[in-house]
Write a structure and sequence with these properties.
heterotrimer; B: 214 residues; alpha/beta; Rossmann fold; two-stranded antiparallel ribbon; 8 helices; 15% strand; C: 382 residues; alpha+beta; 2 domains; ten-stranded mixed beta sheet; two-stranded antiparallel sheet; 13 helices; 12 strands; 21% strand
Chain lengths: 390, 214, 382
């Protein structure tokens, strides 16, 4: 009950402010640690952006061997005919170079009319969309991509092909925005038919080949069943297929770079331990210097628990200050980081889960740093403590 | 090597006892035992009929809060609390209301002549003033026993005199029992009786007073 | 100038064991992260560099980012083979197959290379570790050491299924830690048939004399019948890892810098407290005749000793990482690549310098404060 008295808070707050430099430095250290932790978790989150943006009513069909192998165009109608399938769109990863390989962004050749019906989260200005659909050589770019390289409607977009060799040129007809913060607006799309026609002329034997089919189904609950039905169509053929939900497809990519994701996660926890060392040091020093005060309080009749609580209270006050400031800084820093990395991390969102983890980490550090010093303060033998000159 | 050995003596209510002896004689230890902040390896300490050596730690703390007031050589005030708040500290362990506490604290500060410095921090007070704040803190709970360990050890002559007069006043006017450890003969003269402690053994006598002066 | 013995600084650290342990521990963690990142990058580069022979060149279609994206038509390949500088050539096809991993079952892309016996000869760093080499014109394959360890179904005697055929694994090869350890090799013609390919992916050629590279490159790249890029094998593989290497370096170094600020703050707090606690000593030392600079040096030495302790612990822990192997998708080639942490003398020195900077930056302000104390103030405050 003594703990709830005004006096406990007065003692705690004033003790925290006693060594302004030391407290300030500790808060700063915690701020940096919480900020780094939050940023790293956000970067990990960006890895999963594709999977998080996946819709439950979309499936992806690819060649069973690997993404590197295409499927014949005529599969499209067969897939369309499978019961439960609403729409099918062909999509090829183009992988071209814009000016220089470092200026990377995703480029897809898609069955435009079908594709954009399946992705309602890509929002268009109706007129622009119509103009794109009319222009065989038209291209659609996302808002983030347009902002990064200054693309405007009407601009020419030249690309140098790698998988599909030669020089290619498109006209930007529309810019799309994302319905939510986590929608990827760093992509460029153009007409699949244009890709195919051009390949028929340049390298005929590579025409009529599709990278993946994106399939929209009417009932998401039946996705496993429909996936198997699609694959059954092509079993024992020259190009067997593998159909999975869009989310599983995206998670497949994440799994391939799992080692990196794990590494980043580990490092984000290392920073918490670094700051725990700093904080524990501060609290140990502080408690040691105040030993005679703790002894005096005990002599006056305050319980050992009260004294330990003073140590804990101070530790938590510092941790709270550092934690809250760190969280507050995470948002602007993440936004800045996002603009610096451009299209590398299309979605860099600080999630509520991340904030919760940051605060949790600060709290844990505050508690852990106070355990040993608090115990020492509680256990100090009054006689010895009084002898120590503070 | 035992610090104290085979010791037995009485302190009557209202006594003002001075404890003297060379350094290392165990006088501080004896004081700490009386005040309940140290425990003997064997023996009993009866305070108003209650054996405090048998009390568990938490009860001992409560007993101390109510029964004993402390005055230390180095004042041991909380640097982050004002004089008022320092004196108030022991009262927060009691069920008194805020208004009641304020009354007691003001009275105590008035008694030691520092009510005009109530809002000052220890760092803003002189050594003598800090010691008087400590004395105010020692008496604010109206304890039966006040123990003082070298209360004038760190003070100049004038401040020491003021502090000792205060202690005398507490004893004469308010009937507080005071046990004071000191190595200063002039300070000891304010007490009403003196016991001499050497190598863990207690004795009294005027001739031995000379021996204690180094 | 009389300087205070180093023992003064070091023994003071020993007296406050807990504080020393915590401060050095924080710095050790930062040094660990710093060294580990550098080691990871070095390991990646080592894997790549050891993949390339000095007298081999790789010919791919122009602008193809990797062999998987590249296509070299048969007549073009024949042209490359017939060049005067070329003493041996191997026409190869490279694809990726999706295979589940042993431990997690998660599917990842594995590089499959179809080559002829001359192709094997072009890679002298490759040795058989188990079983035997595949027979030409058969559906036998051999797998790299890393693949055999990590992927299901790749043991000697097991069968892999891809391209509508079963392929029997007859051996495991050891490519000395290079990129080939993460590949599966088989007969080129069988694979081309199975994947219905008409064109090769790349041509690997050995030069009679490494100096003939420039002439060969010039001629092939300007030939109108060909649209190819010609690169030394070493350079080719270096470029393959550029994106991943860049990512690791940038992210890792950014993190190290941020973390080091945290550790520096820890060192600063410790040193400020040390100065505050020893004001009396400082006054006494000055009274004895030691100058301000000696005080400054003594406290800086203490901070640097802390950093040195942190460096030793951190580097020690990082060196243990050499036993850890990483396997991840290389963004450029899209295939799985295994590599390890490599500790080089350069990294040892770099991490030492890093620790020294941390110690100095953390200790300099407190040391200046100690040096600036006036003797009278110091003695009075004691």
């Amino acid at each position: 009950m003594q703990l709830l008295k005004r006096q406990f808070f007065i003692l705690t707050v004033r003790n925290t402010l006693r060594h302004k430099l030391r407290t300030g430095l500790t808060v700063l250290g915690l701020l940096i640690a919480v900020l780094s932790f939050g940023l790293l978790q956000t970067v990990v989150g960006a890895w999963y952006a594709g999977a998080n943006a996946a819709a439950p009513d979309r499936l992806v069909t690819r060649n069973a061997i690997s993404l590197v192998f295409p499927m014949p165009l005529h599969y499209r109608e067969k897939v369309r005919a499978v019961p439960g399938v609403k729409r099918v769109a062909a999509a090829n990863w183009f992988g071209g170079i814009y000016q220089d390989p470092k200026k990377f962004f995703p480029q897809f050749a898609v069955d435009a009319a079908q594709y954009f019906e399946m992705y309602p989260e890509y929002r268009f200005v109706e007129e622009e969309k119509r103009a794109f659909l009319r222009d065989r050589r038209g291209a659609v770019v996302g808002r983030k991509l347009a902002d990064t390289y200054g693309f405007k409607v009407g601009d020419t977009l030249p690309l140098r092909g790698t998988i599909f060799p030669g020089d290619w040129s498109f006209t930007v007809r529309a810019i799309y925005d994302g319905a939510e913060a986590r929608t990827d607006t760093s992509q460029m799309f153009f007409h699949w038919d244009y890709l195919n026609e051009t390949m028929k002329r340049r390298v005929p034997r590579r025409a009529d080949l599709v990278g993946v089919f994106v399939v929209q189904i009417a009932e998401p609950a039946r996705s496993a069943e429909i996936s198997q039905a699609v694959d059954a169509q092509f079993r024992n053929s020259a190009a067997e297929t593998l159909t999975e939900t869009e989310k599983a497809f995206q998670l497949g990519f994440v799994a391939m770079t799992e080692a990196i994701v794990v590494g980043i996660r580990i490092v984000s926890f290392v920073v918490v331990f670094i700051i725990l060392a700093v904080m524990a040091n501060t609290m140990a020093m502080t408690a040691r210097e105040r030993l005679s005060e703790y002894a005096t309080l005990k002599a006056l009749g305050f319980a050992p628990g009260y004294v330990a609580a003073l140590v804990l209270g101070e530790s938590l006050a510092i941790a709270a200050a550092g934690g809250l400031l760190g969280v507050a800084c995470t948002f602007p820093v993440a936004a800045w980081f996002g603009t610096q990395t451009g299209t590398l991390f299309p979605v860099l969102e600080v999630s509520p889960a991340t904030v919760a983890m940051q605060l949790g980490a600060a709290l844990a550090v505050g508690v852990a740093a106070a355990v040993l010093p608090g115990r020492r303060a509680a256990r100090v033998r009054i006689v010895e403590g009084l002898r120590a000159i503070g | 090597m035992p610090v104290l050995h085979d010791l037995s003596f009485d302190v009557q209510r209202g006594d003002f006892l001075g404890l003297m002896g060379p350094s290392g004689s165990g006088k501080s230890t004896l004081l700490n035992l009386l005040a309940g902040i140290d425990k003997p390896d064997s023996g009993a300490i009866l305070f108003d009929g209650v054996d405090i050596t048998g009390l568990p730690e938490s009860e001992l703390a409560d007993w101390r809060a109510a029964a004993v007031g402390f005055v230390f050589q180095f004042y041991n005030l909380m640097p982050v609390l004002t004089a008022f708040e320092n004196v108030e500290l022991p009262l927060t362990l009691t069920p008194l209301s805020r208004r009641e506490r304020r009354e007691h604290v003001s009275a105590a500060l008035r008694l030691v002549g520092l009510d005009d410095r109530a809002e000052h921090y220890p760092s803003e007070l002189s050594g003598g003033q800090q010691q008087r704040v400590a004395i105010a803190r020692a008496l604010v709970t109206d304890p039966k026993l006040i123990v003082a360990d070298e209360p004038t050890g760190d003070l100049d002559r004038q401040s020491a005199g003021e502090a000792l007069s205060l202690l005398e006043q507490l004893n004469d006017e308010f009937g507080k029992t005071i046990v004071m450890v000191t190595h200063d003969r002039r300070a000891a003269e304010h007490a009403h009786a003196i016991k001499y402690l050497d190598k863990g053994e207690l004795s009294e006598g005027a001739d031995l007073l000379e021996r204690s002066v180094r | 100038m009389k300087s205070i013995p180093l023992a003064y600084s070091v023994r003071n650290l020993w007296t406050r064991k807990l504080t020393t342990a915590l401060t050095a521990g924080g710095m050790a963690l930062v040094v660990f992260v710093f060294a580990a990142v550098l080691m990871l990058d070095a390991g990646l580069r080592q894997a790549m560099v050891s993949t390339g022979q000095p007298d081999n060149v790789v010919v791919t279609r122009r602008s193809a980012g990797s062999e998987v994206q590249s296509g070299v038509e048969r007549p073009q390949a024949a042209l490359v083979e017939s060049q005067p500088e070329v003493v041996a050539a191997s026409k190869e096809t490279v694809v990726l197959i999706a295979q589940p991993k042993r431990a997690s079952g998660a599917v990842s892309n594995v590089t499959v290379r179809g080559l002829a016996p001359q192709g094997i000869a072009l890679r002298p760093q490759v040795r058989l570790a188990a079983g035997r080499m595949f027979r030409p014109a058969s559906t036998e394959v051999v797998v790299g050491r890393s693949i055999a360890q990590r992927f299901a179904g790749t043991g000697v005697g097991e069968r892999l299924r891809f391209g509508a055929r079963d392929w029997l694994v007859v051996g495991v090869f050891d490519a000395g830690g290079s990129a080939f350890d993460s590949e599966i090799w088989g007969d080129v013609d069988q694979m081309m048939q199975s994947f219905r390919r008409q064109a090769y992916s790349s041509v690997i050629a050995r030069l009679a004399d490494p100096g003939g590279f420039d002439a060969l490159k010039q001629r092939l790249e300007s030939d109108p019948r060909l649209t190819v890029d010609v690169k030394r094998e070493r350079q080719f593989y270096e470029e393959q890892s550029a994106a991943l290497s860049g990512f690791i370096s940038i992210l890792g170094l950014t993190l190290s810098v941020i973390f080091s600020i945290g550790a520096m703050i820890g060192a600063m707090i410790t040193m400020y407290a040390a100065v505050a606690g020893r004001t009396g000593e400082i006054g006494a030392l000055r009274a004895l005749g030691f100058r301000r600079r000696a005080i400054l040096t003594a406290f800086l030495a203490e901070a640097l000793a802390l950093a040195a302790l942190g460096w030793a612990l951190g580097l020690g822990a990082a060196s243990l990482m050499q036993f850890v192997h990483i396997s991840t998708m290389n963004w450029q080639s899209f295939g799985e690549l295994a590599f390890s942490f490599a500790l080089t003398p350069k990294i040892v020195l770099q991490s030492l310098a890093f620790a020294a900077v941390m110690g100095f930056a953390g200790g300099v302000l407190p040391a200046l404060r100690a040096a600036r104390l006036s003797i009278v103030d110091a003695l009075r405050a004691a």
